[in-house]
Amino acid sequence: MFEKLDDLKKKYEELTEKISNPDVMSDQNEFKKCMKEHSALREVVEKYDEYKKYETEMKDAQELMKDIDMKEMAEEEYYSSKNKLAEIEEELKILLLPKDENDSSNVIMEIRGGAGGEEAALFAYNLYRMYTMYAALKGWQVEILDMNETELGGIKEVSFMLKGKGAYSKLKFESGVHRVQRVPETEASGRIHTSTVTVAVLPEVEDVEVDVNPSDIKMDVYRASGAGGQHINKTSSAVRLTHIPTGIVVACQTERSQFQNRDFAMKMLKAKLYEKAREEQESKVSSTRKLQVGSGDRSEKIRTYNYPQGRVTDHRINYTMYQLENFMNGNLDDMIEALITFDRAERLKEGNI
Q: Lowest CB count within 10 Å: 6, 25, 57, 112, which one?
């Protein structure tokens, strides 16, 4: 580990020198690339410098312990530094874990009602509301890309983008089947129903990351439905794109112009193609981790929302909270941090440094 840290520190120092070079500063692309790499290394290098500082203090205290007059004070300094070194070493192990290159990306989320008919559609709306409220708490921007509503206020499916720093790092574990157990408003006998909703979380990818052949795309335009006034209903501004080789279909109808809808639809398509390629790559690599991001396996439920008990349980990490109302109002941080911590622990267990 420490050999790797020495290499990273050396690279950081080289980059520090490089970004102050006038030739590099005049080349915007090169400067931006170097700054990004420099910024990514800063935290681990600063933590390593802190480690080296306490290591030096511990060695100095060990020398002072030979002096009878200084021994008591030196011992205290020695063990204090030793304990601090152990703490920092664990922090360094976490910082050295391979970073997900998409963690800083914006997120495209898709929510679809599954088993349960209208009740599933109503819960799909509840989840959409939950994630947008979480986004509001984080100060992120929400852009609806496509929405298919039901007459009773539910959502058959919705696609939307959350724009904010680190959005994907926070929400990437939300992909999967979400199950709800509650008494529907339409249930006269008070019987508890179980319904499911699927959630997909995709990182927004840059144009350079996915190569899409225009001849592989079929574009259909149609009149948008739902709210939006006369203009949105009388013009063919909605866009549906079909990627012929994979059969992936995306649609966007929320913008007034066909051009804008096509632009958003292309973002969604590229995100799906990128995720598909990543899933195929990851499926070739066996892993014992329960939180295999992007595995594409939507068949098993990841979480249950039990309204009668006011309980939400994540089955992957056996984590239960009895604050369902608070959770549904967008207060997801405790659950999200538990998932991130579990994922880190599993990767550390694998020795994936």
A: 6
